[in-house]
Here is the input.
Amino acid sequence: MRREIRVEGRTDALDLLAHFPAGVTPRPEQARLLAAVADAIAEALDDPAAPRVFLVEGPPGVGKSHIAMTLARWSGDAYLLTSQKLLQDQYEREFGAALQIVKGRDNYACSHYPDAGVPTSRGACRRPRGPVCQCPYVRAKTAALEGPIFCANTAYFATLRHWHGEHLRRRRLLIVDEAHNLEAQLAGVCTAGFLPEQMRAWFGAPLPRLASADDYRPLLAKHLDRLEERRAAIGRELEALGPSELAPDVFLRTPPSRAEQELIAQRDDLDAALARIHFFLDAEKTEWIVRYPPDPAATLELVPLSVAAMARELFVEAAELVVLSSAVLGPKSVLAECFGLDASGVRAFASPSPFPVEQRRIVYRPVGALSRASLAGLEPALFTAVAAILADHPAEKGLIHAPSYAAGARLVRDLAARAPALARRLIWVESTEAKARALDRHRASPAPTVLVSPSLREGVDLPDDFLRFQIVTKMPFPDLGDPWTAARRERDPRWYALETAKALVQAYGRSCRHAGDYGVSYVLDAQFERFLARYRALLPEWFLDAAEPALRARCPTHDAE
Ligand code: SF4
Here is the structure.
């Protein structure tokens, strides 16, 4: 693991394993990945023209968070970004004071009002002539800014840089964990979104449905003055509730009323909207997509089609070296294009799975090629196949990946009618918000419960008896009913195939979480076979190790094809 490198005429040793978190022995897969990355870093430090963006692909069980921490500790000066707050919590649990976590303002309580539970986003300093002081949020942010490992979620970090103009100095290393989500997260940060109630308050009524994003430019430009006026009016309303009514010290000792908190929240929403509208109006050369579903309660969103410029800027400005880590990222050429990079400046490393295939089998039981058009006709066969699998696992917990919320609800209704005993095991997750509660119920129940959801493909850890089987009902092709997805696919069909591959691999990754774990994954969609035949190169070897025996078991001619 020692790599000799030259830095400004002297020779240093790059020994990544020396920085492996204490108390844990590196697994062989971790040691091999770190050795390969050490070579690449050594070359990058030695040669300014060498690649500086590294893709690290490791299947579940490899221990990517330990690899990320090793690299961060080696650098002594890193941004470590996670895709969600839950993963930040996991880093905090595993590595404690070795990193400095910071979350958005809403996650901390203003210490001026210890008993009132006022979030710092509506704290005393957000009121007219409020104090400047140090609160839990400011302390956490300062500690993270000054500490060796600044750990935040990607959306928060990008928001600080992009919208708050926060000066985040260039560090030695930027690590983006779960980086398969990075494009979607950056697009989300740039999106100008308007809820129906906001449109009513700000524009007098929901904005009309126009053919293209460009058509919204003159309309929004026309409304800018009105929004600025509304912003000023909120400032005046806050002033009116402020110190002139009460002595300033009494005012600041009293927690903000509900009305005042609502005004502060409205002011923040309006500030955010104005910044995004200006950005949209100024970015005329960028292609934007309008997302505005037909139902009356729909949100209007203007989304940039590409995040390449933003990603490139992030990589260059945030750090000297960049590591993107995930179970699957796909070919570096596709990823480089997506992030506006030159593929020759990117280097990829992948690890095999530490688990034998027998612990993470795939069983292929096609009921037909499922698509939007064929789904209704094939649902009876699909639901019958699901019922049979549930009956084959009478005493085990499991997970059913539904094609969509609507199809999942139909599946639950169908099973309730045809097999009430099986249906009683189901825990239907009817929305993203219901996920956490459903997972708690599943974990707490002694019964062989089975979660049903289209949104549990990633970010959930169900080891051991919490998941012994799972069912991929339909191949997880991204929804082409979404205009952004459709436009993205039109621009680059490989991107669409890669998104499908990533979603499939993420779902499969739920089945076996550690060396002593095991679980079987059933695939019921005949598109699986077609997809593998066409896009084998997009899928990692450790996935193919399980998928190909499944195809052979189902289709003896597969080897010859
Ligand atoms: S800086 Fe002070 S006033 Fe502002 S939210 Fe924090 S504790 Fe409250």
User: Anything to note?
Assistant: Residues 2-20+29-99+148-190+307-350 form a domain with the Rossmann fold fold (CATH 3.40.50.300).
